[in-house]
Amino acid sequence: MRNKSTSTTVHRFLFTVDGSVGFSILEVMLAVAIFAIFGVSAAIGIVGALQTNRVALEKTIATQYASEGLEAARSIRNQSYPTFTSPGGPTGISQSPTTGSWQWSGSSNILDSRYTRTITLSTVQRDGNGNIVSSGGTDDPNTRKVTSQVTWNFVSNRSLDVSLSEYLTNWKAAIVTSRGGMLVYGDGGTTTDAMKYRLLNPDGTWAAVQNFPDFDTDSTNKVLMVIRVYASSNRNEKIALTRHYNGASQYIYAHVWDGTTWSSSLFGSFNATNFLTVHNVDGTYLNNGDFLAVYSDNSQTPKYRIWNGVSWTPDPPAVGAPTTIVGNIPLNIVIKNRPNTDEALMAVYDQGSDTNTSYFDSTGWSAALEHAIQAPTNTKEFVDFSWSVQNPAKGALIAASASNDRSMNMKICTAPCPTPAGWSAATQTSNQGVLGAMEIDSRKGAEEYITCDKDASNDIYCFKGNNTPLFTNPSNRLITNNTDSGIQRSFDFVFEAISGTQGVIVYSDATNIAKLKKYQAGINPDPDSFDLNPTSINPSNPLNSVLKTVRLRPLSDNDDIMILMGDASSPARFYTAVWDGSNNSIYTSPPDKAFLAQGSNGSSGLEYWYGFAWDQY
């Protein structure tokens, strides 16, 4: 019988010298390899976790820095939207050492020696429904996209970044429909009394030029010398006050536009062949809607009329009601309504070089109050007055007070101020050349004023005043040392109506290119300062001749400003341009808001034979 085969397992052992059992080299290597794999994996996991934690920590730090950048941008926006939009490229931030407020600074910030932060502002477009779109819309000047980016090197060959973005708006900007206005000017040169007018439409386009009705049928023409235009906030109405000259006599007219047609009234006339370059007529709307006009009839008693929306008082129009006796025949008259009242203050500079004021209390006038009895000459505008926009109970008068006065004098009225008890003592600016034509304007947001003067050396200086009263010197207060010579005021300064923190001066530097400088009022990065260098207005197609006169008319419910400029051509010409207060530039679109030639047949380069008023109704 065959034996059944048996399966046999053979075990091989490695016996050591001492007879114990061991492992083969292969098995040892295998074990080591397995351990290495698990060890390296664990190490990689640990290192990865550490790197993840480090990245998270550093991104948290970077996010905080980026968030700080956005917070600083919001702060700068709240201080001043024009300053907020001023960077032309990537910028950094810093805190003012004096106020602690945020300001733009440099092109970036280095933080903790390794993080770099840059802030970039981008323009924003909106579609017809006001929605933000990436392209194909219209630029919104009151919105910017702010991106705060922080970059850093995690390791030498690996950089990381964090970016945060936010849309910031000019929340202080008034939300209003665009307004139009009216332009009125002479068109008879030095021979006829022809006048024209033109409406600015709310969309920024000019309507066709219209001939002014012939308000005087005499055979002797009366050349337009001065015009001032005013707009009512109570009704669709404009009033133009004009002074004319026929070679022997001067005539004062009032013209009322009722939204459709003009009606004209002769206030008075007088024989006079001298003092032709004067502003002896002015007016102001009162809070109740009445218009108060004051003018000279070549006597020591200025006259006034009141328009109530239907007729002038008294009747007949040729008879004026006396206001008050001043020192001599008025040359320059300034009258300003105290905001939100039916009161007004009149300031008069006369042929005897006296400066007087009289207060209108809604029913009548106070006696004349003399503030100065001398000035360098009696042929220049040595008086101006402005109520404080911030505190309408206060107002500032500026005047000259000596025959060779080199510093403007300012006194503060605390309303009502019919007597010396209502006036402060005078304060003076620092010295300049012998004084010439001067002006003053007040700003929203602070009880402050800017006063400017053209002196006998053809310098234009500007100073900051307040209701203390006190004058200080803003940076770059010398606007130019070479303005056009002559008795006329070859500059004008106004504050933007809404922001209140920025003003604009347009002036002649004795060339045919008008110059503009901005003023920053008490805001960073350079508070209480005029631009060091001017901006040229339309240098590629300038005025026909040297700039002689300037008028600025701010719009009351946004920061736009109408600029009117008259030149030395014969006949004289004038031009318009509109300052875009949101973008700090002259409009380029629509084209009618850009630099534009207007009338070309004016009477004198030394006079304001053109006028403009924005719609208020």
Characteristics of this structure?
617 residues; mainly beta; Neuraminidase; five-stranded antiparallel sheet; 2 helices; 45 strands; 40% strand; disordered N terminus; transmembrane; Pilin-like; membrane; transmembrane helix
CATH architectural group of the domain at 279-442? 6 Propeller
What is the straight-line distance between the termini?
A: 134 Å
The profile of the biggest β sheet is:
5 strands, antiparallel
What is the third-level CATH name, the topology of the domain at 279-442?
Answer: Neuraminidase
Tally of separate helices: 2
Q: How many DSSP-defined strands? A: 45
Shape: elongated
Secondary-structure blueprint of this entry?
Elements (H helix, E strand, L loop, with lengths): L13 E2 L5 E2 L2 H55 L1 H4 L7 E4 L6 E4 L3 E3 L3 E12 L5 E2 L4 E18 L2 E12 L11 E6 L8 E6 L9 E2 L11 E9 L6 E8 L3 E9 L4 E10 L9 E5 L5 E5 L7 E5 L4 E2 L7 E2 L7 E8 L6 E7 L4 E6 L8 E4 L10 E5 L6 E6 L9 E6 L12 E2 L9 E5 L5 E7 L5 E7 L3 E3 L5 E3 L10 E5 L6 E6 L7 E6 L8 E2 L4 E2 L10 E8 L6 E7 L6 E7 L4 E2 L9 E2 L12 E5 L3
Antiparallel strand pairs: 1-2, 3-4, 5-6, 6-7, 6-8, 8-9, 10-11, 10-45, 11-12, 13-14, 14-15, 15-16, 17-18, 18-19, 19-20, 19-21, 22-23, 23-24, 24-25, 26-27, 27-28, 28-29, 30-31, 31-32, 32-33, 32-34, 35-36, 36-37, 37-38, 37-39, 40-41, 41-42, 42-43, 42-44
